[in-house]
Amino acid sequence: MSNPATEAALNRSGLTISRRDDVAMTHVALRRGRRADLDARVSATLGLTLPDTSRTVEAAGQMAAWAGPEQWLVIGPQEAGTDPSAALAKALNGVASVVDVSDSRVIFRVRGASAADVLSLSMGIDLHDKAFKPGDVAITHASHLGVMVWRHADGQGYDFACARTYAVDFGHWLEDACSKRGVFA
Amino acid sequence: MRISCPHCGERALDEFSYLGDASVTRPDPAAADAADAFYTYAYERRNIAGPTQELWYHQAGCHAWLVVTRDTRTHEISDVKAAQDVALERVNSTTGAA
Ligand SMILES: [Zn+2]
Questions:
Q1: What is the Å distance from ligand 1's center to A55 Cα?
Q2: Is A164 on the interface with B (CB under 8 A)?
Q3: Global pTM?
Q4: Contact between chains at B12 and A124 (C-beta distance less than 8 A)
Q5: Could you state, in order of their start, the residue ranges of all structural domains in chain A?
Q6: CB-nearest partner of B60 from A54, A69, A146
Q7: Using CA atoms, how far apart are residues B69 and B81, in angstroms rounded to an integer?
Q8: Which top CATH class is A4-20+105-180?
Q9: In this complex, do A69 and B12 lie within 8 Å of one another by their Cβ atoms?
Q10: Whether the complex's predicted ipTM surpasses the cut of 0.85
Q11: pLDDT digits (tens, 9 = 90+) for A138-156
């Protein structure tokens, strides 16, 4: 936390910000013409059905988020001594290009009923309940930085994946925006 | 100006970057008239007052190339398609005729 005043303002805002540093992130891109094979192997390995629209799906602690046409980001727990990306690369060998992106991105989590009002200050997409529903994902800008954002299933928060290079900057923006809850939004 | 990406929905202009004319097709470099054809392809452009087809890239979004039909007089966008689909249509219409 940057300073006591920001911390106090954050406490008043009813919003919480955290970093998810315990996750493995894997980018999966379909090889041309192998969709049926990919679906079968993902179903067998992760118990998930990959979405074709900008949605997230979850099963048994694993999440797959749509990451553009025929691409997905798979997110799951990173446990000591395991290599989830390598395991997925092995399982999907030949039907998808699989890249470990755990070190290239950071996930921030914002929770709280008023999160959308605050995030709207520096985001171009429509975060209204009817426009960005629980389970929806978007690749867009937040505070001029490229992010992937998805809304939690209970509708009470958002996860942001941003490039690790910009994580400090993005974290500051989140803190600053959320601590001004009640001032601007 | 806002562009409705077929994958992401409607987004602001700052998420996209512009390439240029989407109506031209890259000539065959092995053809006898390749030098002239490439000159026309690279440099000769009509300055259209009306609907044009343009290539835009959804850089801050899904990273897809799009073919946007935009009226240069009003900036009204009447159609947006994935460039991949447009290219496949062109290939299919060529091979379909053969
Ligand atoms: Zn898009």
A1: 14
A2: no
A3: 0.91
A4: yes
A5: 4-20+105-180, 25-100
A6: A146
A7: 9
A8: alpha beta
A9: no
A10: yes
A11: 999 999 999 999 999 999 9
